[in-house]
Design goal:
By secondary structure, this protein is of the alpha/beta class. The chain is 35% helix and 20% strand. The strands form four sheets. Strands 3-2-1-4-7 form a five-stranded mixed β-sheet, sandwiched between helices. Helix 1 crosses helix 2, helix 3 crosses helix 9 and helix 5 packs antiparallel against helix 7.
Amino acid sequence: MAKQIYNAIAIDLGGTKTAAAIVNSRGEQMSEKIKAPTPAKIGGEAILDTIASLVEQKRSILGKDPDVIGIGAAGSIDAERGIVVNSSGTITGWIGTDIVSGLRERLEWASEVPIKVQNDADAHAVGESWKGAGKDARSMLMVAVGTGIGCAYCLDGKVVRGAHHVNGEIGTARIPFNDDMPQIIDGDLPGMLEQNTAGPAMVEFYRRLGGCEAENPERGQKVMELAADGDEIALRVTAALGRRLGEVLSWQVMMLDPEVIVLGGGVPKPKSAWWQAMNERLVELLPEYMQSKVVLRRAKLKNNAAFLGAARDAFRLAGIKTK
């Protein structure tokens, strides 16, 4: 007898856009994703309206009620209750939003459908651990580097969560760096890690150091492209910020001892100056006996990882086995 296949409607909610897709219990994405702008400056109620609209569209494509709904959302999420407990401020009126109750109010047919909400970086990590770059590892540290920086630690395919729902929010840690690069300062304190290491920092520091005005890059990926083309200032900036992340990763390796580290978000390829500098600094700071044991991989699932991770944990909530 063939094993029954179950379906989830999975949501990936970010500060700029919200996307939805159908994922089955075998880890297969069964539909093209659909997107809508996230009304981040309007507030939580408007965002819940957007999520509900996308869910309804996918339900119509599915032709029946989904077995579960899984959501990966920006912000610090109480994953047991589905409530936003903290947010960076990118989304107005987000803190305190009860996503599960809000969706049930908007989707009458979903009153008994299991709904699982978690942080979007956690959802990415579960997806990569299930079907991506970490699928053969018992323990995996997922690090996402883009506009911000976040991470999640997976053990046996499950995210290890903290007591206050901020486990992995390393982007907000205030870390001083002893190098020759500019740094964002917040009064008497060093700026947050993501302010001094993520994509916008690449653009800011490239400009501060006199980078080519004609290029006028607006995104960190453009600075990486300039570095690949041999721009000396871009090379200096990307390598320096890679070293900064490598330093932070060395602490995490000694604290968590992951079997594999998976890097996702907008990170460049392993042959880039950024990756090589990050790897060199990471290894340099580790004890000698650990230097050969670090396994670094680039994420495989790209933007689809959050769908798979959100779906898998929703299936788990419902007691549905995944393959």
